[in-house]
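FYI - complex with LQXTBERG, inputs then prediction.
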Amino acid sequence: MSDVSRPSTADAVPEAPAVTTRTAVVIPAAGRGVRLGPGAPKALRALNGTPMLIHAARAMAASRAVSLVVVVAPPDGAGEVKSLLDAHALPERTDFLVVPGGETRQESVKLGLDALPSDCGIVLVHDAARPLVPVDTVDAVIEAVREGAAAVVPALPLADTVKEVEPAAVPGEPEPVVATPERRRLRAVQTPQGFDRATLLRAHETVTDDVTDDASMVEQLGLPVVVVPGHEEAFKVTRPLDLVLAEAVLARRRLNDGF
Ligand SMILES: Nc1ccn([C@@H]2O[C@H](COP(=O)(O)OP(=O)(O)OP(=O)(O)O)[C@@H](O)[C@H]2O)c(=O)n1
Ligand SMILES: C[C@](O)(CO)[C@H](O)COP(=O)(O)O
């Protein structure tokens, strides 16, 4: 007897077109965390009992669009990072790789990019030091790249007035102010930063200056970079007070989630 509820070949629902471009995230996690003070490498330090880089990897894997996470581990810590990721499961849809990092953030990101399979057409770069970025921010960055932007950064307006100074030759000496940029035109930039893969690879192959983020390398190629709204909870854990804030955010989330 035939199963009448099964659609015939003629009226079968067409399959969704095969997705040929996967989205991968490179998580540079190889820094020491000097500004955080003595202790383990920053990405391995715990926030409410869970290593920071696990929070960051979960934040990326929370996006259904992300199918691969490449963690760039402290140079001598790749084995430990792999064990941590094995022990703290990511969703089944998300693969992960671990590679050892380099001397600078830029080198670490490049080592992560070198490990990407060729079918990843969209690449995000996300600091392990920004463990609490909400999934809506991750999705907004991916969406903007899918819609055609070559480089996308999440960012927030500034609360402080910013001065450009002539840096003191001797630390602690008063520094002359050179200029006060118009604050309403300034943004504090976060991660994940999202890229069309070919653009990001070209930037990393071409730009040799020291830079503090990946988007500025794309700017140096003369290509446009666009901003989408960032989020207060995507702050970077840099100094000891940031650990207190991060644990407070996690405590608030637990309360809101009702456990
Ligand atoms: N050689 C490096 C240096 C930094 N990072 C990563 O880049 C991100 C942003 O860097 P930052 O917050 O400055 O981390 P650290 O370099 O560890 O901090 P510090 O400058 O205080 O030592 C972090 O996730 C960090 O692990 C990296 O992968 N490889
Ligand atoms: C990439 C970044 O998080 C954007 O704000 C930031 O520039 C990293 O700076 P760091 O000094 O390497 O933490």
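The chain has one domain: 22-153+187-257. The longest helix spans residues 240-257.
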